[in-house]
Amino acid sequence: MKVLLVEDEEGLIITLTDRLESEGFTVRSATDGEAGLRAALAEAFDLIILDVMLPRKNGYDVCRDLRRQSVETPILMLTARGETIDKVLGLKLGADDYLTKPFEIIELLARIEALLRRAPKTSAHSPETFAFGDVALDFKRAEVTKNGAPVELSAMEFKLLQFLVENRGAVHTRNQLLDEVWGYDAMPSTRTVDVHIAWLRQKLEDNPKYPQFIQTVHGLGYKFIN
Ligand code: CA
Questions:
Q1: Separation of 91 CA from ligand 1 center, angstroms?
Q2: Which pLDDT tens digit goes with each residue over 61-86?
Q3: For 33, 47, 158, 167, which has the most beta carbons within 10 A of its beta carbon?
Q4: Does residue 207 sit within a domain?
């Protein structure tokens, strides 16, 4: 497994490279955004760890440029503490997960494992667009329209919808959805899933009380059908 580490803090590069190599990864590093982008375009990686605050080109721009050029490698972004809005922006621009500095290496390894486990499923046959009823989805741009009018979705609503659509027909328990969509450090309860499902229905279904697409399977969870 090959990892590209784009990070400008020397100490962190050394620590992470040592640890990842001891876990069996091959690690390349780049110390600014432009070099990181060049490396990611020149060579195939299994995972990119991308710091946000970088010299020459910031992590968001690198992430956006990679996705525009159809590089689908999972991206784990490293953000500074408390950059809540920026995390949402990162996910919208195509990052798969983020981790707030400072972090424990064990936490980073858990995220990496989750991303690599998840990667083939979403990158191998995920469509770029999808339509159901009056709704059109553009996964690359993270845009949703209903009857041609833009629908505002939060990053988590979008991720949940994308997961349901990509795995349509299958029933997912609330706990599975928490794991798959919210990820490893998911603090929220299964109630959070219900709330996001309700919001999605409110925004996308013609009659949210009698949803046609995002369906409840009583006693089990949810499924998407079209
Ligand atoms: Ca930095």
A1: 18
A2: 999 999 888 888 999 999 876 666 66
A3: 33
A4: yes
Asked whether residue 158 is assigned to any structural domain, the reply reads: yes
Using the mean position of ligand 1's atoms as its centre, give its distance from the Cα of residue 28 in Å.
Answer: 17
For the segment 94-109, what is each residue's pLDDT rounded down to a tens digit? 888 888 888 999 999 9
| 124 within some domain | no
Amino acid at residue number 188 = P
Domain endpoint, select from 83, 118, 153: 118
Q: What distance in angstroms lies between residue 143's CA and the mean position of ligand 1's atoms?
A: 29
- Radius of gyration of the chain measured on its C-alpha atoms: 18
C-beta pairs of 216-222 under 8 Å, 24+ apart in sequence: 217/171, 220/171, 220/173, 221/171, 221/172, 221/173, 221/174, 221/176, 221/177, 222/164, 222/171, 222/172, 222/174, 222/177, 222/193, 222/197
Has residue 123 been placed in a domain? no
Q: Collapsing DSSP states into helix, strand and coil, what is residue 5?
A: strand
Please report, for the domain that includes residue 193, its CATH number.
1.10.10.10
Q: What is the pTM of this model?
A: 0.54
* 62, 157: one domain: no
Centre a 10 Å sphere on the Cβ of residue 216 and count the other Cβ atoms it contains.
14
Return the residue matching tokens 């191998």: 124
Residue 57 Cα to ligand 1 midpoint, Å, equals 11
- Residues 98 and 89: their CA atoms lie apart, in Å, by 11
Q: How many angstroms does the Cα of residue 54 sit away from the middle of ligand 1?
A: 5
Quote the ligand 1 centre to 78 CA distance (angstroms).
8
